[in-house]
Each structure stands twice: as C-alpha cells, then as structure tokens.
Write a structure and sequence with these properties.
Length: about 325
Amino acid sequence: MPDDILVIDLLGGLGDLVMALPVVHGLAERFPGAALRVLTHDPGVTLLDSDPAVAEVLRAEKGREREAVEAALENTDLVVSTTRLHGIPDLVEERGIPGVTNLWRSPPHDEPVSRRYVRILAEEGLVGPEYRPPRIHLTDAEIHAASADLPAGVPVVLVPGAGMAVKLWPHWAALVDLLDDLPVVAVGPGSPVPGLPPTDLRGLAARFAAVARRGGVVVGGDTGPARVAAAVGARTVGLFGPTLAARYGLDDPATNLQGLPECPHRRPTAITEQVCWWEARCPLTTTGGPACMADIPPEAVAAAVRALLVLRYPVFSP
C-alpha cells in the first residue's frame, strides 16, 4: 500500500484539472491512509484548497514543469499522470516508481474523458469501478458570502468568454432576449447583460455553488469556468462545437448541446490537430467564427435553460 501518491495534471487548462478530479478522489478513497499530493498549474491550484482528499497541492511554473516533476517525485510511492508531456514517463521510469503515466491510451471518440481515466485506473486496480463526477470542495461560509453577489430569485448566469476563439458562441444577445423574464447576469467579458463584480477563481466557484443552491442555471461553452460550475453542483448548459460532447460533455444534471455533430473536420481524439483549433479558421464558413458554434440555436439553449429550471435534481453540497 502506498504511503505517498502523486497526481500530475500538467495539460495546462483549468478544465483539464476539473476532469482529473475523479482520479484524485478515486485514489484517495482506494488508499485512505496515503498522503495524496497534486502537481498542477495555476490558477487551478486554489480549487483544491479545503479538499479533504488532498494533503498538498504543488505548483508547476509554465516552462519549468520538468523541474517541478523531478522535485515532486522524491519519496513518492505511486504516480498517476494525465499527461505524457515534459518527459514525465521517463522520469517516473528512471525512479522505478509504479503508476500510470498514459491515461490517453487508445481513447474511443465517444467515451467521456473523466470516465476513461477512471476505467483505466480501475483496470489497474488503483481505484474502484464506480465513477463519481468531478466535485470541487467549498465551505459553507464561502458559498454564503458569494450568494450576496447574485440577483434576487433564481438566477441564470452566462459565461460568454472562452480562452480560445474557436469556442466562442455568437448568439448571447438572442439568448438574453429569449430569457427576458428571468434574472440573467454574466461573469467575464462578452455579454449583453450586466456582469457580476470581479472575483478570484475560488470566489467564482462559490458563486456557481450559490447558483446551485438557488436552483439556477449556468450557461457556457466548453471552458474551464463551465466545468467548475458543473463540479460545484450547478445545473449547467454546455455549448460544444469544435469538441465533441460525447467525449468532453459535462456530467448530469448538465445539458450538453452539440453544434454540427457531423462536421468532417472535427477530430474528437486529436482536437489540437483540427484545422480550426488554434486560429478559429473554420473551413465551412466565410462569415467569421466557427460554424459549429453558430449552429447551436439560441432557442435550443433557452429551452434547455428552462427545462433545467423546472427539473429538480439533487443539488451537490460541497
């Protein structure tokens, strides 16, 4: 039985860390006596604050990942990594540390990433077979304080921004018109409705958790903040274009909407190799912006929002 477990998530995106949380919590449950450490990039580090499963969170600076991994491997008994970049498999092999450094082995296009992680580790005997969705731990005090920033009633919170232009949805104004009877606010840039005051990442997570407790809904693209919202229990509508919802979709009670599901240029298991990925140059349109995102109609998004407002799913309590 390992005394010290190291989980390495250095894929670089906030959403990548959220998708790795079932790994973290599965390992903690399987080896309750071990000290579990997580090595990741900022700003995701703060999302693991107060998580009872995590003994220590280590930061890796961009460009210095290999050094961070080398230091973190000292006194480690078991390693699980979500990435093979930065020479991580070689470092682990040189130290003779058991573990899994390839959670991306032969991925099917229609198996969600988080479930794939858990299935591989279960086959290795490192976690139990039961899949539990990503969950971020917050305190009641954080959620209570964040609730004061929200409008009265049952709010709809829009997350119109994205770290990549290829994930931007062009119909936010039309959606707001369709939801004109509801209190609608936004976080981040790019929305035609008032934005909530700026806050840090953990404060944002607490706001989403407060939305969950009110029975509200969060709407966003395939981005880190939308994954954070789902991971604190908020009913979430995810808008998927260049990424395939069957592989990257959010867990229930989320609704995942897919634009252009039969796009011939989409590569579900090699998204960074898509022609559109880095510069949002879509070969299917000359009007600018990705055709797959434009293909998601605001009427469908509004209907999904209203359906989630009506349905009463159990709300996760951090």
